[in-house]
Amino acid sequence: MHLEKNVSLKSFNTFGIDVTSDNYCEVRTREEFIELTHTPVFKAEKNLILGGGSNVLFTKNFDGLVIRNSNKGIEIISETDHDILLRVNSGEVWHNTVLFCVKNNWGGIENLSLIPGTIGAAPIQNIGAYGVEVREVIEKVEVIEFESGEIRTFTNKECEFGYRESIFKRKLKEKIFISSVTLRLSKKNHKLNTSYGAIAETLLKMNIVSPTIQSVSDAVIKIRSEKLPDFTQLGNAGSFFKNPEIGQEQFEKIKKEFPSIPHYPAANQQVKVPAGWLIEQCGWKGKRINNAGVHAQQALVLVNFGNASGEEIFQLAQNILSSVKEKFSIALTPEVNIF
Asked: Which of 7, 94, 155, 288 has a CA between 20 and 30 Å from the CA of residue 180?
């Protein structure tokens, strides 16, 4: 473990924003992080855990300690004929883990293929796509407390998962380091979810009549590759905003003016409306302002066309929020963490 000063974070965030961190270090094991919690710089500085950097927007230099999470490793804890418990260290790349599980015919996360970032970020955001959320397969989450350096384990219920939410994003924000996540995956009789989005249509185009977890993963990868830009070619952080959930009365009012509005049922008799559709209706899809813009294929994705500052992208996001609020009386919430 080696501490460095004034390190560029440009290659460590998928927006490709060129900022620096006052202090920087990389941790490769749980024990290295525990050791780090006892150092003066950790105790004195503001700390930021950085995995894949796929869910952050830096608007300025980071005046603290950035900790790069490279804690890797996958281990089978136990298995039966029907399911398997898999402990995955938090620095593992999420998509690589999905591919590893699909290859071994372990089901439950195939719909979450090609989501950028690391395993450690998955429970924080309760990542989800195409009708599946990671909370459905999480057995437990192991964390290390910043203040004490002690290891704690959270059961699924204790994680307090919600839509793109968890206890780690609220009560425990900036207080813990997620060291590993244990997943319970199926080994047979997989419950395939092909009803959400364009999965069923894509499978038909692929001439697949009896889908497997492999074909569902392939279909999701195909859909995401066609809709979403590769951050190595065009800086972005994936979906910038959450899909809002609104009351039935408000939804019916909007539907009178926009009969074709896409929607999905949500908890507590709420209605989920795609944020990308709302943004597109406000004329933002494909719009570019200097070096920042909205992707031409998916209005939910803000992009860096080359040398945009974080402040430029943040201002673009604010303008989008204002126009959606004005047109639909809906307040969008950023999914991306802004620093």
From this structure: 7
Is 239 annotated as catalytic?
yes
Q: Are 133 and 127 in contact (CB under 8 A)?
A: yes
Q: What is the pTM of this model?
A: 0.86
Only one residue has tokens 């390190």, namely 7
Q: Which of 133, 136, 142, 335 is catalytic?
A: 335
Q: How confident is the model at residue 164 (pLDDT cuts 50, 70, 90)?
A: confident
Structural domain boundaries enclosing 8 = 4-69
Q: Which of 90, 239, 309, 312 is catalytic?
A: 239
Q: 323: domain CATH number?
A: 3.90.78.10
Nearby residues of 97 by Cβ (< 8 Å), 6 or more positions away: 74, 88, 109, 119
Based on the residue annotation, tell me whether 30 is a catalytic residue of this protein. Answer: no
Distance CA 101, CA 313 (A): 35
- Structure confidence by residue, pLDDT tens digits, 193-215: 998 778 999 999 999 889 999 99
User: Residues 180, 250: one domain?
Assistant: no
The answer to whether 59 touches 338, Cβ cutoff 8 Å, is yes
Q: What number is the average pLDDT over the span 118-133?
A: 93
The CA distance from 73 to 107, in Å, is 19
248 Cβ contact partners less than 8 Å away, ≥ 6 residues apart:
269, 270, 271
Q: What band does 265 get if pLDDT is binned at 50, 70 and 90? A: confident
The reply to whether 224 belongs to the active site is: no
Report the domain count for the chain. Answer: 3
